[in-house]
Design goal:
Layout: H1 16-41, H2 44-80, E1 92-111, E2 117-136, E3 140-160, E4 167-188, E5 191-192, E6 197-217, E7 224-225, E8 249-263, E9 266-277, H3 281-293, E10 300-317
Antiparallel strand pairs: 1-2, 1-10, 2-3, 3-4, 4-6, 5-6, 6-7, 6-8, 8-9, 9-10
């Protein structure tokens, strides 16, 4: 019989070497495309394009922030309803009460003619209470205050002679009671939030006239009127008792307050103040006493008397 030839389906990939060569060529072509793409990304044209995109994004961000700031500036006054314009003059008056705390921290130092040194420390803490009447004319507040306080005090004096150990020559502690009549004048500038509520900064002066000065030393338990001169510290360099006016005081006050109208012309007022007291005639007299008693030519008094106070009152607007 003769040979029968049948067609056989073949593929170029059926030959193994040829198949491997095709795959290798495909990988080489893909690698060349990736390398060219990397060279494009690292080239100057792409970097310039990327820098322009970043600059445009930053410019857009700045413009958006400016737009937000402008919108806030335009909307904030309306949102908070602050009125900075001076309003018409209005007159009002009222009455209220106060609570406060007064502290004194003083140090007196001096050198004696014999080469020694004097150091005196004075501490006082007082709880204050009282009432007041006020008259208000929009930009100023005049008040008359009647206030009292209970205090605790401590006073020590130490003398250090030349080439000798220090000696304690005074150590006084005790409690006291004070009453005073005060007058204050405060400047203010009101800012209106709405028809009912306003707030204002305060700055001014206050003068207190002493009405009562009592002391009860811890070692005796006896209450003394300080104007009697029975206590050594209450006598001046001429051995005379200090007058009551020696405890008069001048204060510089600053703080803030707020008004709230609750019914027609009636309003509620609250104020928070901090006062700085200048040295009193009594304290200046103590400095002179040190100069005279210890032959100290230049005594120096340093420290602070301060007074945070909260006041609340009810007022009535006349117009």
């Amino acid at each position: 019989m003769g040979t029968i030839w049948a067609p056989v389906k073949t593929s170029i990939f059926s030959h193994e070497p040829l198949k491997k060569a095709c795959f290798a060529a495909h990988r080489a072509k893909k690698h060349r495309g990736t390398a060219e793409n990397n060279r494009f990304l690292e080239g100057p044209l792409y970097r310039k394009k990327r820098a322009l995109k970043q600059m445009a994004a930053r410019l857009f961000q700045k413009r958006r922030l400016k737009a937000l700031a402008l919108g806030f500036a335009l909307c904030a006054p309306g949102a908070f309803a602050l009125d900075y314009r001076p309003g018409p003059l209005s007159l009002s008056a009222g009455a209220g009460g106060l609570l406060g705390y007064t502290f004194t921290r003083y140090t007196l130092t001096a050198g004696t003619s014999g080469g020694g040194a004097i150091e005196s420390l004075q501490n006082m803490d007082r709880f204050d209470y009282g009432g007041f009447l006020f008259f208000d004319a929009t930009y100023a507040e005049l008040s008359v205050l009647f206030q009292g306080g209970r205090n605790s005090y401590g006073e020590t004096m130490k003398l250090t002679p030349r080439e000798s150990p220090p000696m304690l020559i005074a150590d006084n502690t005790g409690t006291g009671t004070e009453l005073s009549l005060g007058f204050s004048l405060l400047g203010k500038y009101p800012f209106r939030l709405d028809e009912r509520f306003s707030f204002f900064p305060l700055l001014g002066i206050e003068y207190q006239i002493a009405l009562l000065e009592w002391r009860k030393p811890s070692d005796s338990g006896i209450v003394y009127d300080r104007t009697s001169g029975k206590l050594a510290e209450d006598r001046d360099k001429d051995n005379n008792a200090y007058p009551l006016s020696a405890w008069n005081s001048l204060w510089i006050d600053l703080g803030a307050g707020a008004d709230y109208g609750f019914y027609g012309p009636w309003y509620l007022r609250g104020e928070l103040l901090f006062g700085f007291r200048l040295p009193t005639p009594y304290e200046n007299g103590a400095t002179e006493m040190t100069k005279y008693q210890f032959n100290a030519p230049d005594p120096k008094l340093g420290g602070l008397t301060g007074n945070p106070t909260f006041k609340i009152a009810v007022g009535y607007k006349f117009k």
